[in-house]
Write a structure and sequence with these properties.
Strand content: 15-25%
Shape: globular
Distance between the termini: 48 Å
Number of domains: 1
Helix content: 40-55%
Largest sheet: 3 strands, parallel
Radius of gyration: 17 Å
Oligomer: single chain
CATH architecture: 3-Layer(aba) Sandwich
CATH class: Alpha Beta
Length: about 160
């Protein structure tokens, strides 16, 4: 869905896809189509270990994390992205609604969204000032720090158990 949404963008986008799976051959075909769009630079990073992903997040300067899963439990990948100050676009499934405050640290899409909706949302984000994007990233990190940091939550959990 992300690749499809990028086919017709008319603004600069650099997209890095992390992961692999049974749909990888189809994704590669779509990415080949995308490469005809001079506004889009697409990178297929392939499968990475968690340590490799955390290193990429720390050093690549990603600003937006997109997760358009059809279903989720507690989306750890979103929490990890938030810990690096990325704003998040995700489908409103599973626990995503608990993590994302639309307009503050990201945006939620309906589970059955149309690719044009994602394209339009990306267009909206591309028109925001660098300061607005930075503030959303800061808010994302703040929400993660207050509610989802393992260090904080483990300490609170331990304190509750030891009472």
């Amino acid at each position: 869905m992300i690749a499809e949404a990028l086919k017709n963008v008319d603004f600069d986008v650099e997209w890095t896809h992390i992961g692999s799976g049974s749909a990888m051959a189809e994704l590669k075909k779509t990415v080949d189509d995308i490469r005809n769009n001079t506004y889009v630079k697409a990178n297929l990073a392939g499968k990475k270990s968690n340590d490799q992903i955390m290193d990429m997040y720390a050093h690549q300067g990603y600003r937006i994390f997109i997760n358009v899963s059809e279903n989720e439990g507690v989306p750890v990948s979103i929490m990890e992205a938030m810990s690096f100050g990325m704003l998040v676009i995700a489908t409103d499934v599973g626990g995503s609604r608990e993590l994302i405050r639309s307009g503050e640290n990201g945006y939620l899409l309906d589970k059955d969204f149309k690719t044009e909706q994602l394209t339009d949302l990306l267009r909206k984000l591309s028109s925001l000032s660098a300061e607005s994007l930075r503030r959303m990233g800061i808010e994302s990190r703040r929400i993660w720090s207050e509610k989802y940091s393992a260090e904080k939550n483990y300490r609170e959990f331990y304190n509750e158990l030891s009472m």
